[in-house]
Amino acid sequence: MSMHKHVFHNDRVLPLEQVRLSPGQAGLLNGWGIFSTLRIYEGRPFAFERHWERLRRDAERVNLPLPYEQEQVRRTVSQLLQANDVKEGCLRIYFVYNQIGIWCSQEKMPVTDCIMYTVDLPMRSGPVRLGLLEHGRYAAHPLTGVKVTSWLENVWAAEKARGRGFEDMVLVNEHGCVAECTAANLFFVHSGIVSTPAQSAGCLAGVSREILLASAGVSIAERDITIEEMWAADEVFISSTTREVQAVSSIEDHQYKPAPGPVTERLARSFAQRAAVVSFQVGGTARLGRGTRPIEPACSISLIQRTTDKQEQPSP
């Protein structure tokens, strides 16, 4: 899986090789930024409004200036998807704090960078096998639950999982309760009753999790779930942008059979049906390189409010 040939950077779509990022962008190297991953179905981004709302909340929590409007970003998403001719795939939206602390340069740049790119959909098939990592989440940290670009804890744990033959890790918090996986939320079924770790356990408020809580057609309890309760579950499944709803066949050497179970199958069908009716409008034309594509002109979409360059910046 590799990045597609065009990237959106601040106010225009550019060929990937022409995008310039600088070590003088302080947040780029110290991880002061936020991001979200969106699923693309039939050339349309799924649950855009929910992803935007989480980006807005996360920006407030990390004190990151967000001089962008939802509808402006929505139009640039359409522009990028059509430039890369994406029908099925994934989109990443990043906001990076450029002018913060003492390690920023004097280059002319917006206070916050907007970077968007697309990739092919990762191959996800069949039930997954998970490992277990104790003390993998610190629920009491003030930034727990924020989807920040400083993602080392997650990719490090995911690589540990793959090195042991698993697809991901179940992360346990400092209280001995299950929190989440590195890139997915967890759900457990006991005697037909579905539960998922509460956000207070240290999990990210995933958009797929949010959709299941709101419209799965069954009651899902948000609560603390111990390791012992995890072992005792009849079914386990995970949810994420790239996985939708996916059954778990084992955690470490503990097996869950059948996988998927009946509740997991029902919720997977319900989620897939919801994704199938997503609607997103695009239009306009613009020229990129040698060809013409039905996209909006890059020059008509300037996300950056240049007056923000004059804002007084807080100390880190």
Characterize the structure shown.
This protein has 316 residues and is of the alpha+beta class. It folds into two domains: 6-123 and 283-310, Aminotransferase class 4, branched-chain amino acid transferase, N-terminal domain (D-amino Acid Aminotransferase, Chain A, domain 1); 128-276, Alpha-Beta Barrel (D-amino Acid Aminotransferase, Chain A, domain 2). It has seven helices and 17 strands. Strands 7, 8, 9, 10, 11, 12, 13, 14 and 15 form a nine-stranded mixed β-sheet that branches. The protein has a six-stranded antiparallel β-sheet with strand order 2-1-6-5-3-4. A hairpin with a 5-residue loop joins strand 8 and strand 9 (178-181). It is globular and about 60 Å long.
List the helices and strands and how they pair.
Elements: E1 6-9, E2 12-15, H1 26-30, E3 33-41, E4 44-45, H2 48-61, H3 70-83, E5 89-97, E6 112-119, E7 128-133, H4 152-163, E8 168-172, E9 178-181, E10 185-190, E11 193-197, H5 207-215, E12 220-223, H6 227-232, E13 235-240, E14 244-251, E15 254-255, H7 262-276, E16 286-288, E17 291-293
Parallel strand pairs: 7-8, 7-14, 11-12
Antiparallel strand pairs: 1-2, 1-6, 3-4, 3-5, 5-6, 8-9, 10-11, 10-13, 13-14, 14-15, 16-17
